[in-house]
Amino acid sequence: MTKRALITGVTGQDGSYLAELLLSKGYEVHGLIRRASTFNTHRIDHIFQDPHTPDRRLFLYYGDLVSSEQITGLIAQVKPDEIYHLAAQSQVKVSFDMPEYTGAVTGLSTARILEAVRHSGVTTRVYHAASSEMFGSSPPPQHEETPFHPCNPYAVAKLYGYWLTSIYRQGYHLFACNGILFNHESPRRGETFITRKISRGISHIRAGKQDKFYVGNVNAKRDWGYAPEYVEVMWQILQQDRPDDYVIGTGEVHTVQEFIEEAFGYAQLDWRRHVAVDPRYFRPLETPELIADAGKARRALGWSPRIKFKELVQIMVDADLEAMGLPSPGAGKRILREKFGDWHQWQGAVQEALSGLQREVP
Ligand code: NAP
Ligand code: GDP
After folding, report:
1. Cα(350)–Cα(354) distance, rounded to whole angstroms?
2. Choice between 336 and 316, residue whose per-residue pLDDT is larger
């Protein structure tokens, strides 16, 4: 029997990779996208299937998670075997500017999904995209038993979804799981997140379109992994015999400054000439240091990261240079070929998605 998956946030970084992974596994993939007056489907345009395509396996629906009107009917109609709830206002800095909205989307949407599942009577497994930001100021390394001390409205909203997922698992016996994922990046990462801001900034500098860009706190420490590996583990989490929560990360930590130096060094540019600090990018409160202890995932799922910090930097810089039509050093491309080669390859995963044609969902 063909398995059916419903992905919220299918137009996002993770949602787009997950859609590719599940299609490669033979799933029928149903994705929720929100209506916008501008195009927001560039990350999935390369896998788009025209509604007239016979035997198509990718179906897209408009819907906004600020309300439950769409999601309830959709779950009843699609009857998915698995739901991956990834949609969120996912930017920490924005969550300080829009705390109420972030609560409504990032937090309450999880209540809407879980309630819709509960009332639909559909037997489905639910993955909730929780976040390492929930650990906040708790000293690293952080694991499943580490106390939560969130430092921003985004993290608080995720914590609401985390506990709700746990409560519905215990109280209503739903197969509901939290993936507590640490930062994961890729050429499809949103342009306002720091890693992509750096790799994209480098490509703009190389192309002569920009000479300088500005960043905030360069002392923050993060555990950065490669997003396609993280969507693989989302799938694995829902294939287990029992629902559970898992911390996912590389266990390797670097400062923002180190990311800047590594990326500029790889592109053979002097970061001192092109990067400056602007306090406008500081946050009212910072999450100082996130490092995953992913021992449980290693033991229970056999998961460990293939791509580490330096390789991630090389993949991202190569991709942004190529997207700009510039030659790249090429190590990133080689890494993908050697370490993936199956569902996730440079062509499609990187090239086509970056230069994707803009298209309306019919
Ligand atoms: P992302 O690129 O920001 O994608 C977020 C997705 O949610 C987009 O498809 C976005 O649609 C959609 N969305 C936002 N508001 C919505 C609304 N009101 N109704 C319906 N859809 C809405 O995030 P990501 O990096 O893929 O991350 C996926 C999930 O994992 C998020 O929940 C994020 O918070 C969480 N997470 C991410 C990381 C990470 O490092 N990437 C780490 C831990 C947890 P548009 O395309 O229209 O904006
Ligand atoms: P986050 O960990 O989910 O907040 O992911 P981000 O990529 O947005 O930020 C990672 C870290 O980089 C945080 O500690 C930010 O304060 C820091 N940072 C420093 N400069 C910038 C910047 O210009 N933009 C962003 N987004 N983050 C920055």
Report:
1. 6
2. 316
Q: Is 197 in the pocket of ligand 2 (CB under 6 A)?
A: yes
Residue 288 neighbours by CB under 8 Å, 6+ apart: 137, 220, 221
Q: Partners of 8 in the beta sheet?
A: 32, 85
Which residue, judged by its Cα, is nearest atom 34 of ligand 1?
90
- Is the CB of residue 6 less than 8 Å from the CB of residue 84? yes
Whether 61 lines ligand 2, by a CB cut-off of 6 Å, is: no
Say which residue, 42 or 83, is predicted with more confidence.
Answer: 83
* Block residue for tokens 């896998």: 47
User: Position of tokens 């995932």?
Assistant: 297
Residue 203 has pLDDT above 60, yes or no: yes
The CB of 94 under 6 Å from ligand 2? The reply is no
Tokens 């050429």 found at: 187
For 85-138, how does the pLDDT look when each residue is reduced to its tens digit (9 = 90+)? 999 999 999 999 999 999 999 999 999 999 999 999 999 999 999 999 999 999
**Known catalytic residue: 69?**
no
Task: Specify which residues 292 forms β-bridges with.
Answer: 142
Q: What percent of the chain has pLDDT over 70?
A: 96
Higher per-residue confidence, 336 vs 160 = 160
Q: What is the pLDDT of residue 360?
A: 40
End-to-end CA distance of the chain: 27
Which residue blocks in the chain are alpha helix, DSSP H?
A: 13-24, 69-78, 92-97, 99-102, 108-120, 153-171, 194-206, 227-238, 256-266, 295-301, 309-323, 331-339, 346-349, 351-354
The one catalytic residue among 131, 186, 199, 203: 131
> Are 224 and 254 within 8 A, CB to CB?
yes
Residues 6+ apart with CB under 8 A from 167: none
